[in-house]
Each structure stands twice: as structure tokens, then as C-alpha cells.
Write a structure and sequence with these properties.
globular; homodimer; alpha/beta; 7 helices; four-stranded parallel β-sheet; about 200 residues
């Protein structure tokens, strides 16, 4: 990034902001200026929010979620169905499912998907811990909520194979037309899956 | 923003990140997760960079630039031409001109442009200070580097009128075809300006 006419502290702030996903060098400069202009309203709160997050955030020892309590709020929530575990690749997926409010289950965050090309093998994920949790007699169903990509689906197959001797039903998310989606814009694979899994109207 | 299954510290971090220009709720969540995953590599440095910036950044009392010294590094740079002052609306414009390395002058940051619709009048900008600086006998030229918008150009006219009794030449940036630009995509106003200001080849 070219040097700007400002002190090293500002340069450093811009460089760090530019590392965030969604921000490049140009938008990092805009964000830095915005922060400097809103020093009391935004910069100070953000600095202390980062500090607080640094100090308090932990990774849940049960499911791999991030939270400021350990085990996390989901795992300790007595109102959650203890018989279902929803397997997700990433905390972002857990958040997405929670926003959908579609289920009231517990989660298991794998920490990624199997990806031989990127050197991600079973030992890099929390698959062992999942198999252990699946053998808990209270658990009846494992819902594989993994991306519908090659890596996501091969991870799903791998986990299903490992769970064959556990007393659980293994399910996966339905494929089909996204709600609000137009058929015209959908790929053939999704359309074929939607036809195969058609439901009575 | 819907509640996510994480502690209040994480929620607060996401809410603050979502206020940055270029980040919405979704990219703020991604940025927060990224920060949490890179706790030592990015989150801690960003927290301390914000803290350092908070403590050190000042607004230059001469030109309105932001820097960690006051007067700023540009104003105190003895190698800069003291006879030229480049008037910009915002620190972002100053940075853009510095990146272009097109001049070796000092600046004057107005803090915005006149905008009756947004309630921005002359007293909201540093126009008085600019007029004072323009009366310094060392200053020979005022370059108005303002946006080629209605507000930018009316600000330029307003400043030019105020400077009529100062012993300075008032100039503005040239209009024309952007370097690398294609004529086909240019608006008529720019094309007409480029024709009017054509130069010998």
C-alpha cells in the first residue's frame, strides 16, 4: 500500500483494517477516516469491544461454538432438544441456522470441511468429538447441515460412515428451490434435486 | 439485527463493525468471526492500533489534516513548496493526491463542501482560516482540488470570490478524459470539457 501523509499509527490502523474480509486497501482507508472522525462515538467503543472480546471469548469445549461462556449458551440451554445434534462446518453456519429459527437443537462445529487439496484431513476437524457425542444414548438424530459443495458432501459421507454403529439417525438438509428463487436462474443440479424430492401439494 | 447465539460482547463487536462504511450486518458478522479466529494475529493488534490512534491522532491546527503530530508532517516538511496551497474537501482527498505524487505542496482541508440542502454553510468549513493563509505573502497559488460535483464547484466559486483581494493565483484541477478511460463510456460533459481544453500533440 502506498505511504499516506499521516503518522505510523494511522498507517498501521489502515493496514490492519485492510486484512478484514470485505475490506480492501481503499475501503480500509475510508473506514479508518470514518473511525477517526467518529472518535468518541465509534473508535473508542470499538477499541473497548475488541478488548472485551479478546478477554472473554472462548471456544465451547462441548460443541466448538464461540461464546463468552464455556460450555456455550446453546449447550447449557435446558430448553434445547438434547436428542438432536446439528453438524455445521463453521460458527457462521451455526449463526445462520439460529437466525432461521428453524430448530431448537444443539450443534457441533467441525471447524471446516474435509479438503484433501487444502490439506484438511479428519484430524484437523472435531470429528472424533462428534462420534463420541453421537454415542451418548440421549442423542437420537445427527443432522448434517453442511454446504452443498463437493467438500461439504464428502465430509457428510465420511461422517455418515463413521456413525454407522452409533444408535442415531443421520439426516441431511433438503436440496431444492430456494424460497423466493426463480427457476430460470437455477442450475440444473438443483432443479433435478427439487424434482426428485418433490412433495405433495 | 437478529440475535445470534453468542455472548453480548460478540453482539456488540458485530454491531460496531456494521457501522463502518463498506460493511453491512452480514460482512460485519464475517469480519467479527475472522477477528475471533485470528485473535493473536489480528484482533489484539487491531485493538492496540485503535487505542494508539485514539491517544495520538490530532487535527493539524494549520491545515486540518489528521496526523499524530501537530502541525502535521506535511505542514512541517521543509521540502514542501511553501508558495502553493492545495484546497481539498476531505482528508481522503489529501491522501489521494499524496498517492498520486503529483505535487509537493501544502494543503488546506475544508472539512466538506458547501451544501445548502444538507445545511452546510461557510461557517461549518475552514474557509476563514484558508483566507487568512492565502494572505500570507509567501503564498502565490491556491489550487482548488475539489470534487467536480455541483457542491464542489459552488464551493470553489465561493472561495474564489473571497480570495479576489488576496495576492494569489487561484487555479483548479483540469477536466478531461481519465487516463485509461474509454471515450465510449464518458459522459457528454467530460467529453465537451476535454475538447475545450485540448492540448497540442
Amino acid at each position: 500500500m502506498p505511504t499516506i501523509a499521516a503518522g505510523p499509527e494511522i498507517e498501521r490502523l489502515i493496514q490492519l483494517l485492510a486484512l478484514l474480509p470485505g475490506l480492501g486497501p481503499r475501503s480500509a482507508r475510508r473506514a479508518a477516516l470514518f473511525l477517526i472522525k467518529k472518535r468518541e462515538l465509534l473508535m473508542a467503543p470499538l477499541a473497548s469491544a475488541l478488548q472485551a472480546a479478546m478477554e472473554k471469548i472462548e471456544i465451547c469445549r462441548v460443541c466448538g461454538n464461540i461464546d463468552t461462556q464455556n460450555p456455550c449458551a446453546v449447550c447449557t440451554d435446558a430448553r434445547r432438544e438434547p436428542s438432536m445434534i446439528v453438524v455445521v462446518a463453521d460458527v457462521a453456519d451455526l449463526w445462520a441456522l439460529e437466525r432461521a429459527r428453524a430448530l431448537n437443537a444443539r450443534y457441533h462445529v467441525l471447524g471446516g470441511t474435509l479438503s484433501p487439496l487444502d490439506g484438511v484431513g479428519p484430524d484437523d476437524l472435531t470429528i472424533d468429538a462428534l462420534v463420541k457425542r453421537a454415542h451418548d444414548p440421549a442423542v437420537k438424530e445427527i443432522i448434517l447441515a453442511l454446504n452443498a459443495t463437493v467438500d461439504g458432501q464428502s465430509t457428510a459421507h465420511y461422517i455418515t460412515d463413521l456413525l454407522h454403529d452409533a444408535e442415531v439417525k443421520v439426516t441431511r438438509l433438503a436440496h431444492g428451490v430456494p424460497v423466493g428463487g426463480e427457476l430460470d436462474y437455477l442450475d440444473e443440479g438443483t432443479l433435478a434435486a427439487a424434482i426428485r424430492s418433490r412433495t405433495p401439494f
